[in-house]
Amino acid sequence: MSGDLEHELAAYLWLIISPILLIAGICGNFLSLVVLASRPFRKSSAAFGLSTLAVVDSGVLFVSLLRHWVFYLSGDKIDVRTLFGSYWWCNLHVFLTYYLNQLSSWTLVLVTVERAVSVIAPLMVRSRFTRGRTVCAWFVISGLIFSINVHFFWTVEYEEEAVFQSFVGDGAGNGSSGGAGNGGGDVYYDGDDVRLIATAAATVATDSQRQCYFNRKYAYFTNVLWPWIDFVLCVALPFLVIAFSNLAMAYCVWKTMKIRSAKPYDTRYSQKMSLGFI
């Protein structure tokens, strides 16, 4: 009972919150791209990082969030990964789900590191973080993440399985559901195999069930190793780098404020600080 209640509550949350996040996220990212594409920001390395982050985040919303919204909106009947009945679409969608999430995290890391350097060593940022170097760094990161996630094109499989309708006979060859009966009994489909009740039964294939799943040959990698690899790449390492960068920036600002408050009338120091911030 509690499980059904939790499932219904989760479904309502997906139905209500998903379109809000989609609309707000897509519109916000579009406005960011419009502003960052204007002339004052166009040649900035920071503008490239923020523009790329807006595009990648929009891809995450379209690929991941939209799939879950459609799934719950259809009453758990439509899965975008199996919608087109294509092996390549199934593999590509799973690949993009992980690839875009990891790329979003590391694009944010790139933006944060550049911001940290601009605060800690403002004179260095213009020489080290040029637009060309930032673009090259992003493409190197995206290439590395691509090579890590490319295994989805062979570790994920797509197939269609026959779904059998329950067919009950009366033991004399007369069936109680559609089709001609071959004998008494009941055949039902439980997701793994077709099981037979009684001595004889008729199997009536009524539909096909499309599945996009990890290949069982790579079960240890996909079920045990990959969740940890994805956690480290998508959450743990980006979190550590971003947290360290923000702490370094906070310490630098705090130290600067402390020194300035201790020497409010030191003209030479004020000139040095002004030059540094410029």
Automatic annotation (TrEMBL):
GO terms for biological process: G protein-coupled receptor signaling pathway. It is found in: Membrane. GO terms for cellular component: plasma membrane. It is a multi-pass membrane protein. PROSITE patterns: G_PROTEIN_RECEP_F1_2. It comes from the Eukaryota. GO terms for molecular function: G protein-coupled receptor activity. Keywords: G-protein coupled receptor, Membrane, Receptor, Transducer, Transmembrane, Transmembrane helix. Residues 28-278 form the G-protein coupled receptors family 1 profile domain. This is G-protein coupled receptors family 1 profile domain-containing protein. It comes from Helobdella robusta.
